[in-house]
Each structure stands twice: as structure tokens, then as C-alpha cells.
Design a protein that fits this description.
By secondary structure, this protein is of the alpha/beta class. The protein has 22 helices and 21 strands. Helix content is about 40%, strand content about 20%. α10 packs across α11 and α12 runs antiparallel to α17. The longest helix has 23 residues. The termini are far apart.
């Protein structure tokens, strides 16, 4: 047996907080060493935080990270462990996203990231250079830099960064063929709905394909709109050995027998034949050896025990309750949104509290519940100390809406301020009609005046109180412009801006079931609508929300043309006449393309899915365009 203990760390970093990020890593490194960890794997860009975006264009931003990487090395010098830690470096004037091998008080090797994602929420190709060093290996600050392996007393280690694992032709193949037994992947993979299962399957597949043990550590926490769920995996030749907890900082560890990895290679004739063919045509990846006098893990490894299942059976799966996938989906999404709100609030030193304007509708209710989920974790004794709610009734606000707002705030222990806007609305309407030369304002303008008064008041409250003003609109209504610029589109952070309306309603049903809050039931008892006009119902003015979300997904995510969208929607809802379906699709397409100018002005928003309305990070669409292309020309 050749037992090694692998630790996966999760650090909640802040972009640019070099000292704090490194301090947290040092503390976890010491805790891992005390647990007998042989190899500690941290996350991508740990020292600088992630995503760094254009900050890497500042030379000082990159150079400052090297100072703290060396400090990490010095302050972990006495630990008998190898550490893999993400860092940005400069080489010949170019910036690289790299992983450093640290042991015995020094940086021993630097391996740059080769696959740079520039799609969806990623922009690495804009700022970083692809990590292919001419000649294979060079020296950076006296440290071997390039495509290389690290030889330790316990075995051969390969280092890689995030996307290098996701690509089927990534560097893991040649490194495994060159002798790597353990592949340490430092990652910052944002949370997206459904990504967890994909990650797990990907890592097991890569470990099986390349006959290696993979240790994958992911970032945790939120920076701007990206939310990282943490967690990590150890997979030995395709066998899952560790599934680290998510949504929390810290570390998890497992012991593996690296001799098992080598034995499985000898048994796998296909892998051996492929390795031989590769070796005949290629030079092996160079190796950097860490001398035994620098890193001697023998004493610590001698205390390790062979990994045995808790069930004490190597043939039976563990006895564990299987979570309901729908309930797990809801809780994951709520955790992501709460972490996004909490980290945005805590990592910005400008905010003293959080504010939500309750309209009486579903979106603002869910936003309040998400903020409360965060607040009750950091202030379980008094979440209302950092969370405030406001209701600003107009002449169209029903008594049921006011009662529901009061009830949910009582349920949550959150203070509620009632600030009527009827008088302000009358004054603003008169001023508007005066600007129109005495002509009456149209109905849309009358509705928008109410929304803008509320938005202005929330900003005024925020300016003086230092409060984080949360924008409450959902993605579906935002997509078709069912929102007001200067009104409900306003806020410092869009909490639900990438959550479809049907998901909003399902989340509220889930929360009603799990919490029993009467205020939720009171809101759900009435049709969804903004109450900016008499008897206003959102689905009457738009279309049924399931159809709206179907159109949005098929057109926005699947990139189908309207004719194709109508065909699929008609299949989904066969009870509807074909002409009615076509009318809905045409209406959606017209509203979606005609209101891009609105949603590109929305505040920064939390990213939780693969279809996001964010011009900087996701769906980049021109505001000015001719819609004729949707009809084929």
C-alpha cells in the first residue's frame, strides 16, 4: 500500500484581498496538516480572488500576488504537505492563470492553465494567455514554469487549472501517459442549476479514462454576480472516494492508496497500449523533483489507514436516504441566491443593512425571503437588525396586499415601513401632463410613475442609510420588458433577475410547505400582478407564465426561430389552438427583441443558470437590430 491523504480546501475569497485570502489559506493548510493531509488542494486564483477580469491588466495586481504566494510558502514551511494553490503570474509581459506547487517553504513549480474559457460568464481569453510555454519549461522568478510534473516521495503529481479538466483534449492525457498518478485540479467553477451532477460525472469519467486519481477543489462564495458553491471530489480511476460538502468554507479529506491506481493501469490493456503508442511518438512531460529532505511525508503517511466503507462492505452501496431531486433543486437555488446576497453585502464595505420594497407580489416576497435566509444565518437572534422592508401603497394597492406585507414581516421578524405614494403620484402626474402641454398621460406612463416614485424613494433611503437596495424583478418579465426603467428595474443587485417566473412561483410553494408562513399563503392567494392599475393581472397582459417561459427557453437558450418555437410550444400545450400558440410566440418575440434596451440597463445580477440576461456576462445581443432575421431574412 502507498497511502496518501488528500485534502480539498474551500476559501471564500474577495477579489483583490490578497492578505485576507492568503491568511485564510494558511489557516486551512495548517488544519489540513494537523489532519495528516499529504496533498492539500486549493482553488483557482485563490490569492487574487475570482473572477479578476481586467484587474490583471494592472501589473501591480499580478506582482502583489507573488509576494503573498511566497508568504504562504514561508508560513507553511514546517508542514509535511504538498500544496496546490491558484495564482496569477506574469511571464515575459504576459499574464497567466496558474497553479503553484508549494512545499518546504518554497514555490517548487508553476503550471499555467491551457484552456481559457471565453464563453457564457467567462472572459479569460480577453485577459490571460494560453499556458503553452515555448520549449515546454522555463524559469519564472527562479521557479520551473510550464508543462511539468512534480515528483514527491509518495508519487508523481500533475497540476492543472479548472477548464483543463473540462476539455476532452486537455493536458491530463499526456501527463498521465508521462507517469502522473495524482492530478490536482484547482477550480473556480460557478454554480449553475444542474452543474453538480455534470461535474461529478465528468471527474469520474476523466479519472477512469486516464487511469489516474483526480483531486478537484472548487471555490466557494460569491463575487459580483457569480456564485461559487464550493465542494470538491476525489475520484480514483473512476471510483468516487470523496464528495466534499458545498456552500461552506473549510476542507474535507480522504485517504487513498496510490498503488491501486498503478495496479489498475497494469490491468487496463487499452490504457497500456494507448500509453505505449503515445510514448513512441512524444517526449514525456518534464518532471520537477522535490527532494526528500525538503518534503518527507513518510512519518505522517505511516499513521494513515486504508479507506474502508462505513457499511463495512466493499460490495454493497452505502445506506443513505436519497433526497427528492425537486426539493434538492429548490434548496440549492435558495442557498445560491442567499450566498449571492450575503457576500455582495458583506464584501462591499459601503453597506450597513439590506432593504427590500414589498409590492405585495411574488417577486418581492421571494426576494425578502432570500435576504432573510442570509440574515437569519448571520443574525439568528435578530435578522431584522440588518434587514428592512418597505411598502409604498398607491391608490391601486389592495388591502389584501398590505395585509400580506405586514403578515410576512411579522412571520420573519423584519421591520416594515409603510410610506404611501398617492400624493406624490398626483403631483408627478400633474407635472408630467404640464410637460406634455396639457395633454393627458397615457396609461403606461401612469403606471410607470408609481414604479419610479418607489424606485426613487428606495435610492434616497439607500443613499442616507447605507442600505443595499435589492432589485426584485424576475427574469421572464425582464426579458419581455414588463418592467419600468427607473422603477422596479432599479436596485444595486438583482436577486431574481436570472430566475424565471415559473421557478419563482415553485420556490414560493416550496417555502410555504417548509416554513408554513401565513404571509406566503396570503400572497399566493391572489393572481400575480403589479397593482399599478385596477384589477391588473400579469398573465392577462402577457400570456400564461408557463408558455412565456417555454418561449423564452426555446428562443433565448435553444436559439430556435419563432416557427420552430411555435411547433414545440404547440406540442407542449396541445389543448391550445395553433393560432393562439402562434400569437403567443409572435408576441414574445416582438417584446423580447424590442425590449433589449431595457434589460441591458438592469443592475448587476446573480447568475444561477445557463440562460442569463446579462449583456456583460451571458446573452450579448445588440440593442439596435432589424427583426426581419427571425422570419428568415
Amino acid at each position: 500500500m502507498r497511502l496518501v491523504r488528500i485534502g480539498l480546501a474551500q476559501v471564500n475569497t474577495t477579489v483583490g484581498a490578497f492578505a485576507a485570502n492568503t491568511d485564510a489559506a494558511i489557516a486551512i493548510a495548517r488544519a489540513m496538516a494537523a489532519d495528516g493531509v499529504t496533498v492539500g488542494v486549493f482553488q483557482e486564483q485563490l490569492i487574487g480572488g475570482y473572477p479578476v477580469e481586467d484587474l490583471v491588466q494592472w501589473q501591480g495586481f499580478v506582482e502583489g500576488q507573488w509576494t503573498h504566494l511566497q508568504r504562504f510558502a514561508r508560513e507553511t514551511a514546517e508542514l509535511p504537505s504538498l500544496f496546490a494553490i491558484g495564482v496569477a503570474v506574469t511571464f515575459h509581459g504576459l499574464r497567466y492563470n496558474a497553479v503553484a506547487a508549494v512545499a518546504g517553504g518554497e514555490v517548487r513549480a508553476l503550471v499555467p492553465k491551457e484552456k481559457l474559457p471565453t464563453y457564457n460568464v467567462f472572459y479569460e481569453g480577453r485577459t490571460f494567455t494560453r499556458g503553452v510555454v515555448p520549449g515546454g519549461v522555463d524559469l519564472l522568478q527562479g521557479v520551473p514554469f510550464g508543462d511539468l510534473l512534480v515528483e514527491c516521495d509518495f508519487g508523481t503529481v500533475a497540476l492543472e487549472v479548472c477548464e483543463d479538466l473540462w476539455s476532452p483534449d486537455g493536458p491530463i492525457g499526456r501527463r498521465a501517459y508521462s507517469g502522473a498518478e495524482l492530478v490536482c485540479n484547482v477550480s473556480a467553477s460557478p454554480f449553475r442549476l444542474g452543474v453538480v451532477q455534470t461535474r461529478r460525472e465528468l471527474i469520474n469519467t476523466r479519472a477512469s479514462d486516464h487511469a489516474v486519481t483526480i483531486a478537484y477543489a472548487n471555490a466557494v462564495g460569491a463575487n459580483d454576480g457569480l456564485v461559487f458553491d464550493g465542494g470538491g471530489y476525489v475520484s480514483q480511476n473512476g471510483k468516487a472516494m470523496l464528495d466534499a460538502p458545498r456552500w461552506r468554507a473549510g476542507f474535507a479529506a480522504v485517504t487513498v492508496d496510490l498503488d491501486r491506481t498503478l495496479r489498475l493501469r497494469t490491468e487496463n490493456t487499452t490504457w497500456r497500449a494507448d500509453q505505449q503508442a503515445w510514448a513512441e511518438a512524444n517526449d514525456p512531460v518534464p518532471t520537477v523533483a522535490i527532494p526528500r529532505e525538503v518534503l518527507d511525508t513518510a512519518a505522517t503517511r505511516a499513521t494513515l489507514t486504508y479507506p474502508v466503507p462505513e457499511s463495512k462492505s466493499f460490495f454493497l452501496p452505502p445506506i443513505a436516504p436519497q433526497p427528492d431531486p425537486r426539493q434538492a433543486f429548490f434548496e440549492d437555488l435558495l442557498d445560491a441566491l442567499a450566498m449571492g446576497v450575503g457576500d455582495y453585502f458583506e464584501k462591499n464595505p459601503f453597506f450597513t443593512c439590506i432593504g427590500v420594497a414589498l409590492s405585495g407580489g411574488r417577486d418581492s416576497l421571494l426576494t425578502l425571503l432570500v435576504a432573510h435566509r442570509y440574515a437569519s444565518r448571520v443574525r439568528p437572534d435578530d435578522p431584522g437588525a440588518i434587514l428592512k422592508a418597505f411598502t409604498m401603497p398607491s391608490q391601486h394597492t389592495s388591502e389584501g396586499t398590505l395585509s400580506a406585507a405586514k403578515q410576512i414581516c411579522a412571520d420573519l421578524g423584519v421591520p416594515l415601513e409603510e410610506v404611501p405614494i398617492a400624493e406624490a403620484y398626483a403631483r408627478e402626474l400633474a407635472a408630467t401632463e404640464e410637460m406634455l402641454g396639457g395633454a393627458p398621460a397615457n396609461e403606461i406612463t401612469k403606471q410607470n410613475i408609481q414604479a419610479r416614485i418607489r424606485g426613487q424613494r428606495m435610492w434616497n433611503w439607500s443613499n442616507t442609510s447605507g442600505g443595499l437596495f435589492l432589485q426584485t424583478g424576475n427574469m421572464s418579465e425582464k426579458a419581455v420588458g414588463y418592467t419600468t426603467i427607473g422603477g422596479d428595474l432599479e436596485g444595486a443587485l438583482g436577486v431574481l433577475a436570472n430566475v424565471p417566473k415559473t421557478v419563482v412561483m415553485a420556490l414560493l410553494d416550496h417555502l410555504l410547505t417548509t416554513t408554513g408562513y401565513q404571509g406566503i399563503a396570503m400572497v399566493l392567494a391572489k393572481p400575480a400582478g403589479p397593482e399599478l392599475a385596477p384589477n391588473q393581472v400579469g398573465e392577462d397582459e402577457l400570456m400564461p407564465f408557463p408558455i412565456l417561459d417555454a418561449c423564452f427557453h426555446l428562443f433565448g437558450a435553444e436559439k430556435l426561430l419563432p416557427d420552430e418555437v411555435a411547433q414545440v410550444v404547440g406540442t407542449m400545450f396541445p389543448e391550445l389552438p395553433a393560432e393562439q400558440v402562434r400569437g403567443y410566440v409572435d408576441k414574445f418575440t416582438r417584446m423580447f427583441l424590442g425590449n433589449i434596451y431595457k434589460w441591458v440597463q438592469a443592475p448587476i445580477s446573480l447568475h444561477v443558470g445557463t440562460l442569463d440576461l446579462d449583456r456583460e456576462r451571458a446573452l450579448q445581443l445588440p440593442v439596435v437590430q432589424d427583426k426581419g432575421w427571425t422570419r428568415g431574412g
